[in-house]
From TrEMBL:
<feature type="signal peptide">
    <location>
        <begin position="1"/>
        <end position="17"/>
    </location>
</feature>
<dbReference type="InterPro" id="IPR024079">
    <property type="entry name" value="MetalloPept_cat_dom_sf"/>
</dbReference>
<dbReference type="GO" id="GO:0008237">
    <property type="term" value="F:metallopeptidase activity"/>
</dbReference>
<keyword id="KW-0732">Signal</keyword>
<protein>
    <recommendedName>
        <fullName>Lysine-specific metallo-endopeptidase domain-containing protein</fullName>
    </recommendedName>
</protein>
Length: 273
């Protein structure tokens, strides 16, 4: 309990000492190829916001002091993997923190090489697995320089970081089939543990980005699970398999989720459950 209190205290003190937080941005970079024909109305905005949120999550490892980040890092990875994981996130962001010309870390320019399509262009990519997992997205041809990211319909039911969709009755771009997709906020993620309440389209996109070899200095990741019944996009038991964590897309996704929301909400979510 004392250790938990200390972590929260350290995060809170750091937040107060740093009035502005560095944010990963895509504002000045060319977005991936997001064709409005594939994502009509509000869904195109969701995808664009999702890539921006993915950068926020990738940047979360660098926000707090290393001592605070390491307490969460070692829940998901072996401590000796710190530099390798940091390099992977830095590559996604477009450069190491403090590197000349990279202070804003707006996103790696090669993100523009990704073609983003919906599941109706690649329906086979979104079929449920034999062990019952719901597929939210898939990176196709991640071993090439021009991959395709397929975002499945199910992914659009997850809100953005502090962003809701289709909840304004005056928004003419809303998807009537989806209804209101609420924002993911400190209030909605709660204060108890890492859970699917943290799942955003951005965290799903970050997961898929780690499947692209061009962004991963240690090689593209796989979807590794400890049991065949484990949910592909869940967090259950992931914290226990550190031996292969550096090659597991889920480890990057859920470490980033826990790191971001711990720092943003000043909450200690404890060990993955």
């Amino acid at each position: 309990m004392l250790a938990k209190v200390f972590i929260v205290f350290l995060l809170a003190v750091t937040l107060l000492a740093s009035p502005t937080r560095p944010k990963g941005k895509l504002a000045k970079r060319k977005l991936p190829k997001i064709d409005a024909r594939y994502f009509p109305g509000i869904r195109k905005r969701q995808v664009e916001d999702g890539f921006r949120d993915a950068l926020k999550l990738a940047n979360a490892m660098s926000d707090p002091p290393k001592s605070a980040a390491n307490n969460i890092f070692k829940l998901w990875f072996n401590e000796i993997d710190w530099d390798n994981v940091q390099r992977s996130f830095d590559t996604i962001l477009g450069g190491a923190k403090g590197q000349p010309g990279r202070n804003l870390r707006e996103g790696n320019p090669i993100l523009a090489n990704i073609l983003v399509v919906n599941e109706h262009q690649r329906p086979s990519a979104c079929r449920a697995t034999n062990f019952g997992s719901q597929i939210l997205a898939t990176m196709v041809n991640g071993h090439t320089q021009t991959p395709t990211m397929v975002i499945c319909d199910a992914a659009f039911y997850n809100g953005g970081i502090d962003k809701s969709y289709g909840c304004d009755e005056h928004d003419t771009s809303q998807d009537l089939c989806m209804g209101c997709v609420p924002a993911v906020t400190c209030q909605s993620v709660g204060q108890s543990r890492v859970s699917l309440a943290m799942l955003t389209l951005g965290s799903t996109i970050l997961h898929e980005l780690t499947h692209w070899k061009e962004l991963m200095p240690n090689g593209k990741t796989d979807d590794l699970t400890t049991t065949m019944k484990e949910a592909r996009y869940g967090n259950s038991k992931l914290g226990g398999d550190k031996a292969n964590a550096i090659h597991n897309a889920q480890s990057y996704q859920w470490f980033a989720n826990q790191m971001y929301w711990s720092w943003e909400c000043e909450v200690d979510f404890g060990n993955p459950q």
